[in-house]
Design goal:
Bound molecules: adenosine monophosphate, glycine
Structural class: alpha+beta
Number of helices: 15
CATH topology of one domain: Rossmann fold
CATH class of one domain: Alpha Beta
Radius of gyration: 21 Å
Number of strands: 23
Helix content: 25-40%
Strand content: 25-35%
Shape: globular
CATH architecture of one domain: 3-Layer(aba) Sandwich
Distance between the termini: 47 Å
Length: about 450
Amino acid sequence: MNTPSKKLNIAVAGSGGREHAILRKLRQSPRAGTIYALPGNGGIARDGIPCVNISPANTPAFTAWCLDNAVDFVVVTPDNPLAAGLVDALSEKGILAFGPVREAAKLEWSKAYAKNMMRQNNIPTADYAVFTGCGAALEYAKSAPYPLVVKADGLALGKGVVICGTYETAEDAIRGAMEGGRFGESGKTIVLEEYLCGPEVSVLSFCDGKTIVPMVSSMDHKRELDGDLGDNTGGMGAIAPNPFYTEEIARECYETIFLPTLRMTQKAGTPFKGCLYFGLMLTSDGPKVIEYNCRFGDPETQAVLPLLESDLLEIMLACAEGRLTPDMVKFRDGACACLVLASNGYPRKFDVGFTISGLEDAEKLLRPSNGAFSGEVYCAGVRYGGRVPAAISGKLYTSGGRVLGISAAAADLQTALSACYAAAGNIKWRGIYYRRDIGQCAFDKKTP
Ligand code: AMP
Ligand code: GLY
């Protein structure tokens, strides 16, 4: 089906800022035919991209819709549909997809599996033990060094990790997961893990099952408040490249982590295809894996893709078809920052339904005529008030915790950050909240 001249109808699964960034990039490809988002969001609809209200986790409905609408290629990025086997279901119907099959995505949906695989393959990671019974876990916690990290085995919306300073907090976390059902089925098995410290680095990579090509590195800002205080969130901002990730460290990671991980997936009979995300910590003992995600990170993607010079669609097709080569993936020099604008109260309780204003002004500001920087506003928790697909006149309303991502790329990080904050100053809704210190650690060079 993939003859070079044919335009492809594409469906992107998901509804976040990450998907908006992917869609904007895919749209630039000369090979892109009609692009759909399932379910997409109001900001994606505002771009004129048809949004179809089908959940990607409903694999039969999603697959049937793709067949009915002559979709040639599907991009699957959220964790749930990957764990539900959407890529498997599509391929059974002969539809090509970017993303790992369910068994390959196990590196993300089972932390116990990922840890055991790393140990067997000598991939540097924190020491750990896996438990399926509460008594044995508590016994282990009594004599373990502190802080101790308690992790639910399965997907837990980014909330399955508790860093415990004392036995009492560890006992609460262990009992809460294993007896209290705090994370549902995801917490029936837990991993108890050594606490590591050092700067964190996110490295997304393209994989086709045989070849792995790392993208430019990035840094997430996971905590809610300035100074890395407050609760863990999905991510309040990102910068790329990561200032702590030197060329020397990159070489070391490639040799000791990236390549061995790809080989590990081949040996297991689940060669990884798609985007493999390495969550790394640069410890005094060398880089170690904190986690694998089997998908693009969010907001990291919103800081990484604006620096990609190559055709994203061609790269994704090459990954899916097993013909990826390093020369296909080119990033431009310079830096990119992404600032997340959130609803006040996120990641806890927050209100939605407020009118968003100032988006056009922000977008204008992000495209200066002198080209000193260039930026985009990506939409996440956004609902569209107008017709869909529609003219730009319809109003946008908040509908989620993370609402917008403002990304700007420039020759240097300071220019990129200043552009993001200047654009953010134009955007208003009742209860808008964002961190004021995204990227600051790059100048302080202290661990975020
Ligand atoms: P994860 O969901 O595995 O990405 O964990 C969420 C966050 O918890 C990470 O980004 C780290 O900041 C922190 N974390 C996870 N594991 C460890 C560890 N072993 N030592 C220290 N911090 C950790
Ligand atoms: N930003 C972290 C993640 O996507 O899981």
